[in-house]
Write a structure and sequence with these properties.
- The chain is of the alpha/beta class and 395 residues long.
- The chain has two domains: 139 residues, Aspartate Aminotransferase, domain 1; 240 residues, Aspartate Aminotransferase, domain 2 (3-Layer(aba) Sandwich).
- Helices cover 44% and strands 14% of the residues.
- The chain contains 13 helices and 13 strands.
- A seven-stranded mixed sheet has the order 2-8-7-6-5-3-4, sandwiched between helices. A four-stranded antiparallel sheet has the order 9-10-13-12, covered by helices on one side. It has a two-stranded parallel ribbon with strand order 1-11.
- A hairpin with a 7-residue loop joins strand 12 and strand 13.
- Helix 7 packs parallel to helix 8 and helix 11 packs parallel to helix 13.
- The radius of gyration is 21 Å and the shape is globular.
- The mean pLDDT is 96.
- Keywords: Aminotransferase, Pyridoxal phosphate, Transferase.
Length: 395
């Protein structure tokens, strides 16, 4: 679908009322915290429940006879199609964090004295895992505080300067969409720069998959982890590990895993009994995702809802919007800060208590604490308007 069509569809409230009707929604606060995990559609929820009941009734018989040999591969193939990559480059995991941690834990292309790179906007578990790797293997961990306010150029300059000053950086984490501020990293430009300096990227795409389109092979990204339970709409406990076939030797089998051949990506993650009903639901999940218009339409809608509150919020004295308006650097997730109030957690609580708006406070970024605003596919422009009115009164 051309981007112009997706942009028009993003503003078609009739279309999104029909989409919202696919979900069962419990009455309660206006939810502006869809960044944690998404909802399953009613169709997906019913399919999931059906698989739960079948596995519960039949126990191990269908798992041994069908799932292990056929069903799990069908689910993997569906996920590979979603990513546009070869099935042999994909393994299903519990989460994006589990996927990225598996790569970090088993990456074998490092020597003592080499350096690792993370930023203040990387997910905590990713930063922690890279720190652990540094301690275990005699490496040095470099932490880059990304510039604020961020621009396309100053982000790239920060990375370029860091690579020049630290020529032994060999591995870096790169978060496509920050869970803290919603900043979208200029992935293609950073990947090109990393290749010039012989730095391998581990991509954390947890918040990108489902609301942004990207081509891993074209970008030259060989190692990545993704989430299926945020914008794709899968049951909880599902993520994706991606290792390009030509990078499989850079990642050892997890703790000597021998259940699968050494050239099989499934050996790179811990073996255990998975959430079989959730796995079996994945073909339905992806069919629903595509029926809603896929990442292009979903992303356009989330961006539209984001813009509805960001533009007026920038005019409110006492409110700072942390995420830039450069369309290359934002998506549906955007964070703000009340500049006259130090405690952003308390302000998020006031949004809920006084205005019935559910948000989440985030800390850890070098630019300071913030409140993350994340609309979803059932969010209406009227609900976004409620946020703007609340900001005006609280600022």
């Amino acid at each position: 679908m051309p981007s112009s069509e997706s942009s028009l569809l993003a503003r078609d409230e009739g279309y999104w009322r029909d989409i919202a009707a696919r979900y069962d929604v419990e009455p309660g606060p206006i939810n502006l915290e869809y960044g944690y995990f998404g909802r399953m559609t009613r169709t997906v929820s019913q399919a999931y429940q059906g698989h739960i009941e079948t596995i519960n009734r039949c126990n191990s018989v269908p798992v041994r006879q069908h799932f292990e040999q056929i069903g799990s591969l069908h689910s993997r193939d569906a996920v590979a199609g979603l990513l546009g990559v070869a099935p042999r480059s994909v393994a299903i995991t519990q989460s994006a964090s589990a996927s990225v941690q598996a790569i970090i834990r088993n990456y074998n292309r490092l020597q003592p004295g080499d350096e690792l790179l993370v930023t203040d906007l990387d997910y905590d578990s990713v930063q922690n895992a890279m720190g652990w790797l540094a301690r275990q293997r005699g490496l040095k961990l470099i932490t880059l505080a990304l510039p604020h306010p961020a621009t396309f150029d100053n982000i790239l300059e920060s990375y370029r300067d860091t690579f020049v000053r630290n020529p032994r950086i060999r591995l870096m984490a790169l978060t496509h969409v920050s869970h803290r501020t919603g900043l979208v990293m200029p992935l293609e430009a950073i990947a090109r720069l990393a290749r010039e300096h012989d730095v391998e990227i581990i991509l954390d795409g947890a918040h990108a998959l489902g609301q942004m389109e990207f081509d891993l092979e074209r970008l030259g990204i060989g190692l990545a982890g993704f989430n299926l339970q945020k914008w794709i709409g899968a049951p909880l406990s599902l993520g994706v590990l991606y290792i390009a076939p030509d990078r499989i030797d850079a990642v050892d089998a997890d703790m000597g895993e021998l259940r699968y051949p050494q050239d099989d990506i499934r050996s790179r993650v811990p073996y255990g009994t998975p959430n079989v009903p959730a796995w079996l639901t994945l073909p339905t999940v992806i069919a629903e995702h595509e029926a809603m218009g896929g990442s292009l339409v979903k992303g356009a809608r989330l961006n539209y809802l984001r813009d509805l509150w960001v533009k007026p919020a920038r005019e409110i004295d006492g409110v700072e919007v942390l995420t830039p308006d450069d369309p290359r650097l934002y998506c549906g997730i955007t964070s703000l800060r009340f500049t006259r109030h130090h405690d952003q957690v308390a302000m998020a609580q006031r949004l809920l208590r006084e205005f019935n708006l559910f948000t989440v406070a985030r800390e850890g970024s070098a630019c300071g604490p913030c409140i993350r605003i994340t609309p979803g596919f059932v969010t209406t422009p009227e609900e976004v308007g409620s946020l703007v009115r609340a900001l005006e009164k609280l600022a």
